Amino acid sequence: MSFARSGLSKLLAVRWLGQLADGIFQSALASFVLFSPERQANPVAAALAFSVVLLPYSVVGPYVGTLLDRFSRQRIVQYSNYLRAITLLIVALLITRSSTGVLLTFVVLIAFGINRLILSGLSAGLPLVVLKEKLVVANALAVTGGTIGVVLGGGIGIGAKKLLDAHLSSDRSDGLIILLAFAGYLISGVLVRRLRRFEIGPKDLEDSKQDAGWKEMIEGFHILRSQRDSFHGILATAIQRGGLTSLTMMVLLLERNTYHHSNQPDAGLSGFATMLTIAGCGIALGAFISPSIVRRLGRHLWIRWAMVLATPSLILYILLPNVITLGFASFLLAGTGQAVKVTNDALVQTRIQDEFRGRVFAFYDMAVNGAIVLGAVIAAILLPNSGKSIALPLLIISVYVLTSLLLLRGSIFSAHSAPTT
Description:
- The chain has helices at about 5-35, 45-55, 55-65, 75-95, 100-125, 135-165, 170-190, 215-225, 230-260, 265-295, 300-305, 310-320, 325-350, 355-380, 390-405.
- By secondary structure, the chain is mainly alpha-helical.
């Protein structure tokens, strides 16, 4: 399939390699924080981990988002990759020394904040390197390939840890794995150089001279309010991601403390990785089927249906709670969640002009991050250390159904023309 613009393959290479490195980094961080023998996993610790790496970006998001509309996105992504690589060198050093203090938390915050800036820049620039009618397919490739990269990276990290643990202490092996991620980020930064300076925008810098920060973010918010379908789609995507986060925490605790003995963290980590792999397969399927379904139903109707299609699988898990039904629910929820995400990304990219796209995607990230943190907090409140819960799956089902019926109902969330592709 031809997209008629060569910049897409260059953008995808940067995104996919960076997210492969993300997976390696996150596997080492999860091993160090939640799956180390001397550190017992509990809902509060897991929720804190999600909050620490995501919530602070919501404070700086308005500022970094406006940068994407004021300066070369190619340069921002390039230098951000280099800076992210440097932060990982510091993280590797701290983890090797078994440091769990404020300094490690601060550096990890910087690393994850930079990561969100990079992904926002690449998403904002995508419409400039692909034909408009191919946006859903391009988003499926970009987002899904990146997500699969995270899963593969996690597998690489876990595999490398098993090999290194036979010769080194757990913390030292985690530190070495993070050095693998450092190399990935460095190469990703080099690959950005293949894109021309303004190939991924912004197209017109003359209209981007307002004061940066919350003022421009509010302007972006007002633009979104005038594009009601994009705004509702963003909120729905955020809600879906919040539910997935709650489910992820439930799976983490079940694998760490119930399906495996709490004194066998490596077995729990392997079980969690298996569940992530199953979810990754669902993600690939959700992205694969979305372009053809969108051609038949349009973006709006597909987002509305994808929001609720997987909820029966959670009912099945409630009735028959075991590893198989949990894996089935993870597969379907991840798949439909990816369908919502890639379809709504294309919707927002089509509706929002390039001069505002950076700050809109920064708001998009803020909304998703806030929902993820909220989902983690709710899970921490409802989940016991074992991870066994009926209340949490029921809550996820209720919220998804209400979102589809109310927030995405046809009278306020509908195309203004024929079904879009």
